[in-house]
Amino acid sequence: MASVIFVLFVSVGLVTPLVLIWGWTRWVQRPKPKTLTSILSLSGFALATSSAILAASLWAYAHVHPFGFYDPSLLRIYRWGTMLSLAGLLFAVGGAWRNSSIRWHALICAFGTLSFWILAASGE
Q1: Cα angle vertex 79, ends 64, 77, to 5°?
Q2: CA–CA–CA angle 50, 119, 45 (5° rounding)
Q3: Interatomic CA distance for residues 18 and 65, integer angstroms
Q4: pLDDT tens per residue across span 75-112
Q5: Burial letters 59-77, b for 16+ CB under 10 A, else e
Q6: Residues sharing a CB contact under 8 Å with residue 17, sequence separation 6 or more, in sequence order
Q7: Alpha-carbon distance 20 to 115, whole Å?
């Protein structure tokens, strides 16, 4: 069990931000096909990015304003982050069937942000 938690922490804290940056860099440099699957991959990647931005904003805000246990606003943020990640994962799975420059990046980032929100909520 400890090894699973360690792998999740490494994937959330190290792999997800690196793949996020690599994915946006790759998307800017490569040609962008206008197929349904590439649009789904881009949508999933954008939703995973917004979830990661929400997580980073929450982390920065929590240093200035500490949250209490079961703070309603904190739980609302957890819910929004989880929903963004789940929607990103669904779109990324829909876009993974055909070749796209960010199809695997979208899946990895959506799974990583979803793992973050689950770990954060379980620590509450």
Answers
A1: 15
A2: 25
A3: 28
A4: 999 999 999 999 999 999 998 888 888 889 999 999 99
A5: eeeeeeeeeeeeeeebeeb
A6: 52
A7: 15
- Whole-model pTM? 0.89
Those residues with Cβ within 8 angstroms of residue 59's Cβ, 6 or more apart along the chain or in another chain: none
Segment 23-37, tens digit of pLDDT: 999 999 987 788 898
Rounded to the nearest 5 degrees, what angle is found at the Cα of 9, between the Cα atoms of 73 and 86? 55
**Closest C-alpha among 88, 13, 18, 19 to residue 50:** 88
Name which residue leads in pLDDT, 34 or 64: 64
Residue type for 88, please?
G
Q: What is the 3-state secondary structure (H, E, C) of the chain?
A: CHHHHHHHHHHHHHHHHHHHHHHHHHHHHCCCCCCHHHHHHHHHHHHHHHHHHHHHHHHHHHHHCCCCCCCHHHHHHHHHHHHHHHHHHHHHHHHCCCCCCCHHHHHHHHHHHHHHHHHHHHCC
**How is residue 71 written in tokens?**
């703070």
Please, are residues 117 and 82 in contact by the beta-carbon 8 Å criterion? Answer: yes
